[in-house]
Design brief:
Strand content: 5-15%
Order of helices and strands: HEEHHHHHHEHEEHEEE
Number of helices: 9
Distance between the termini: 59 Å
Helix content: 55-70%
Radius of gyration: 41 Å
Number of strands: 8
CATH superfamily of one domain: PDZ domain
């Protein structure tokens, strides 16, 4: 890209210089003083001569023009180099960002259930087949209703919308179908996150008062199994104001119990994996 721009600039400069020289030659031949510079020669023929001073001035002007063009080319080369460097930096930044995004996506990836990963979690093949079939039927009906809503008249559209709302309310939950323990094993065996870990504790929070530390893995909140961040959020929104809840955590391989007031714990969490057998 850089070499192409420089070559183009040199070609333009050469064309510009040739035009300048032709213009100056024409001006010297047709200038206002050309009639007074004519000298008589043999056979009454006339020839036009150019003063040495004019030639020297032309050469000086040409040299000045070349120096100006070279200076402009140098400036453009610097700009091209700078732009190329900036483009390389932007590509490097984009690549690093994509790598980080890919890493984060893989860490929090959600794997669609299939017979193999359900069987690996200890689910009987006939039960896995039944769950997957009903989930597939429901998914297809949802797509079908969405297409009908786009093409239907207003009256029919309202009917399809109501059916779609009812279908979404009755969405098949794999966790509900399997139960907490089997679903926990399914998440772990399929390589998905199945726990939340404390990454930091907020100053003055109930978690700090209770003794939470970064690295603690929350197992239970008020006897409810915690497998994801939505679980802990839902659990902390329950309970009466002023009451306490028991929280089970895993710290350095040992299970501990902590009592906290109901409500926000005051911790930052990140997803992690844990073998349910621990």
């Amino acid at each position: 890209m850089k070499s192409y721009i420089i070559t183009l600039l040199i070609a333009l400069s050469a064309g510009y210089l040739g035009a300048k020289l032709n213009q100056q030659t024409a001006a010297s031949a047709n200038g206002p003083d050309s009639g007074t510079d004519k000298l008589s020669v043999e056979n009454d023929s006339t020839a036009q001569t150019v003063s040495p001073f004019q030639i020297q001035n032309t050469e000086s002007h040409t040299q000045l023009t070349l120096e100006e063009l070279q200076l402009k080319i140098n400036r453009l080369e610097n700009k091209v180099t700078k732009l190329a460097s900036q483009q390389a930096d932007m590509l490097s930044l984009a690549e690093n960002t994509n790598n980080k995004t890919t890493t984060r996506t893989r860490r929090n990836r959600v794997i669609q259930p299939n017979k193999n990963n359900l069987s690996a979690a200890g689910i009987a093949p006939d039960i896995a087949d039944d769950i997957l079939r009903r989930m597939g039927q429901q998914k297809y009906r949802r797509l079908e209703l969405q297409g009908l809503i786009r093409r239907a008249d207003p009256a029919s559209r309202r009917q399809y919308n109501r059916e779609l709302q009812q279908l979404n309310q009755k969405k098949i939950s794999l966790r509900t179908e399997l139960g907490d323990d089997a679903y926990d094993q399914y998440l772990f065996s399929s390589g998905q996150n199945n726990r939340v870990m404390v990454s930091s504790v907020m100053a003055g929070s109930p978690a700090e008062s209770a003794g939470f530390l970064p690295g603690d893995i929350i197992l239970l909140y008020d006897n409810s199994k915690i497998l994801s961040w939505p679980d802990i959020r839902k659990a902390t929104l329950q309970g009466e104001t002023g009451s306490y809840a028991n929280v089970e955590v895993l710290r350095d391989g040992a299970q501990m119990s902590m009592m906290v007031p109901t409500g926000p714990l005051g911790v930052e969490l990140e997803p992690t994996q844990l073998d349910p057998a621990q």
